[in-house]
Amino acid sequence: MSNARRWPFVLLPVLGTLLFLLHLWTGSVTLSPTAVWKALIGEAEQAGHGLIVRSIRLPQAMTALVAGGGLAACGLLMQTLFRNPLAGPSVLGISSGASLGVAFMLLMQPLLNWLPLAPDAKLVLASLAGALGVLTVILLADRRIGDGITLLIIGLMVGYLCSALISVMQATSPANALKGYVLWGMGSFAGVSVERLPWLVVPGVLGIGAALLLVKPLNALLLGEDQAATMGVQVARTRRIIMWTTGLLAGTITAFCGPIAFLGLATPHVARGLLRSSDHRLLMPATILCGAVLALLCDLVARLPGSEASIPLNAVTSLLGAPVVAWVLLSGKRWARAA
Length: 339
Prior knowledge:
- By secondary structure, this protein is mainly α.
- It has 15 helices and no strands.
- The chain has helices spanning 3-6, 8-25, 33-40, 47-82, 94-107, 119-145, 148-172, 175-185, 197-213, 215-221, 225-230, 235-257, 263-275, 280-303, 313-331.
- Helix 9 runs antiparallel to helix 12 and helix 14 (280-303) packs across helix 15 (313-331).
- The radius of gyration is 20 Å and the shape is globular.
């Protein structure tokens, strides 16, 4: 690896570590590094410091790390699979399916009261069921059609159908349930408690690990499916693995954090700009690191450190992500050109 391509792998971990520490230090109550350290090891100077650091800030920072890296990996997987720079985690309707499951849970609660599960467990299962339900439809269409562009269009139509069903439920739901769904739809990394964190981290790490193992077939797919097949890649099988990985990551992250805008779409382009390479052996880990760093940065901005107020996370991710997408559209292939 040349020095020109090595520096992002030094810079990004340093930035990520700094932002992670800032998450622990800053907030409505600013704590010193010493106070944070003592709170982490159980020797807090004040009783409330341990609760603030271990129960609120640490889970939120870890959620941002996993969600940012996972969504970024989803974006790169989709952009490579469809050879479309504007593809993202929601391109197949998987995120919309997860949102439909959550909407059914939050807006149609009396129908699910008979389930002997905790509310959080119901929410996660509903999101995963919606994501996997849409994914099953896409996989059946893929087996019948086998064409990436047509599959992309079907995914978009499924997403619109899910959005229409959500709108119908919103129009007929009570005000308090609608408020809860609207707040969830704004996106947040703050809703994952210490008890729920393993349910996000374990699937997230598994999905990110699967994405890293796909780097060689992803490089082959850059040349086209026919060329990849001549190189020994089982294209249909690889496509299905990519979609299952995307479904696992997008469904799990959406359940816990809501539909996060632009992170999955914009982050791979940031990584390409840093590396000036389309080699997934470098691009995939760089994209995951970029996603984690950008998620931490967006969450830090949304929290408005030093203030009791906060702003919706999706507003921040859109403000940072929309210019990147506009740049991609204006610059065409030059932004993603391999070095």
